[in-house]
Amino acid sequence: MSGMPSLSIGLVLALSCAMPPAAAADSPRPAYAWATTEVFDVSRVPAYEGRHDAVHARIDADLAAHVAHLQRWVRQRSISAQDDGIDAMASLVADDLRALGFSEVRRVETPGHPGVLGYYDAGAEKTLVVYMMYDVQPVEDNWQIDDPFAGSLVENEHGTVLMARGATNQKGPQRAFLNALDAMIKTTGTLPVNLYVVAEGEEELGSPNFGKVIEPWVDRLRKADGAFFPMNIQRPDGSVSLNLGVKGIVYFELESKGGAWGGPARSEVHGSVKSLVDSPTLRLVQAIASMTTPDGNTITIPGYYAPVTPPTLEQQRLINALATGADDAAQQRSLGVSRWIDGLTGRDAIVRNLFEPTLNVDGLWSGYTGTGIKTILPHVATAKMDSRLPPGLEPDDAYRMIRAHLDAQGFSDIALRPMSGYPAASTSVEAPLVRSMLGVLNKYGATTRVSPWLAGSAPFHQFTRTLDLPFVFGGLGYGTGAHGPNEFMLIHPAAGVKAAGLADIEKSYVDILHALAETR
């Protein structure tokens, strides 16, 4: 929203939210019946017992070169929002796949940034699709290093870290995965599974063209046994949070302009005429307020909760396990908040976070927000909003219900501009790919918490729905600072830090591929 002034309308919003909510009785918050007290026990998944000592030794021997590969990737700028270095990064990904021995590599042009497809034919029984994103977020000014694209190795309380934009999100873990492939190929001459790589350069933009990237090979990809996204999901204490999916999302703008309904149509006017002239700004605020209860915490759009799929028995067991170790106070401290809505804790908080849609205002702007005083009645007001969608609530239906609600409440003049949208994705914990991942995590002694899905959003429906594949994202390794300053990935852990360093990250990827190959 660069260049767009922000409206300070907290008082206006508070006043409008004090109005009785429209249609609140038509959209009650759901109450889910709980049918089991059983807890999913990760420790009952047998630890992976395979030994690949020669490959692991090769990783140790080549570790300095492997660190250099990570540095090479983060040094190539690839800021998708600014089209900065994107073309060169796409070429780097393609060239690295060729260097590893991928027999087919192709660049895929889209209406936006290009994608890259690669195929390694190992003549194996099993085939895995590996998702990669090669774009990164813009950088901020307040980094502790001079150049976030220098690939700097820095010492901090966790040990030696690679501090750079893209270090953990997601260039570091992705190149670590390719390092693991390199060690396997150099040691054994091949891989235990056939591999497809599908890489996009628009994940940070909401993946608007990822469907175009996979389109040339979609029929081939559907024949795979699963899909995997390399990612650092450890904490410094060595514990792991494994999410088996994501919520969907709709992201949109609402805009109120003066016109036939009232309000200044051409430009702002003197604030004194508010006695006679409608305010588009107040109208937008009231339209937003009509979509929730006065506290802003229950969506009043008729039917909005109804399509959500209730927790299955499998998901209830996962949630029961999550609830046994839930530390609401610690999560609240990490976010800088004092309480959850309605004082929720434990299982109740987990269920609401995972199984209820959200309605969130990301930004509001209108009128004058500069220094001093300027008394005007603005002619236009705009809001950016998002809604996270649990499985069952589809993007098209969400947009339809939002539009219908605004019209029914007399806000047909409010423009609704969809900007992005995709559905949720989820995979069963019983899928062989997931069990393989859990077995490897158990081998490395990681305490693992498994969630049915993440409350955030990503375009993983392309794997679970378009390709109809089980999909898992994760791996050993610790990193933080994604989308913010001082992003880093742990390379060499300090004493007492239990998260894996680069060598063990790569060894775990070797084990994951072999574990999948050995499933029956």
Annotate the secondary structure layout.
Blueprint: H1 10-17, H2 53-61, H3 63-75, H4 86-100, E1 104-108, E2 115-120, E3 127-133, E4 152-156, E5 159-163, H5 171-188, E6 194-200, H6 210-214, H7 218-221, E7 226-230, E8 240-243, E9 245-257, E10 269-270, H8 280-289, H9 313-324, H10 328-335, H11 346-355, E11 360-366, E12 376-377, E13 380-389, H12 395-408, E14 415-422, E15 425-426, H13 432-443, E16 448-451, E17 454-457, H14 461-466, E18 471-474, E19 479-480, E20 488-493, H15 502-517
Parallel strand pairs: 3-6, 3-7, 7-18, 8-16, 9-17
Antiparallel strand pairs: 1-2, 2-6, 4-5, 5-20, 9-13, 9-14, 9-15, 10-12, 11-13, 19-20
Helix pairs in contact: 1-8, 2-5, 2-15, 3-5, 5-15, 9-11, 13-15
CATH homologous superfamily label of the largest domain: Zn peptidases
Number of domains: 2
Classify the secondary structure makeup into a structural class. alpha/beta
Give the C-level CATH assignment of the largest domain: Alpha Beta
Low-pLDDT residue spans: 1-27
Distance between the termini: 51 Å
Helix content: 25-40%
Beta strands, count: 20
SS summary, helix count: 15
How are the strands of the largest sheet arranged?
1-2-6-3-7-18
Largest beta-sheet characterization? 6 strands, mixed
Estimate the strand proportion. 15-25%
Mean pLDDT: 94
Q: What does the overall shape look like?
A: globular
Instruction: Work out the radius of gyration.
Output: 25 Å
CATH topology of the largest domain: Aminopeptidase
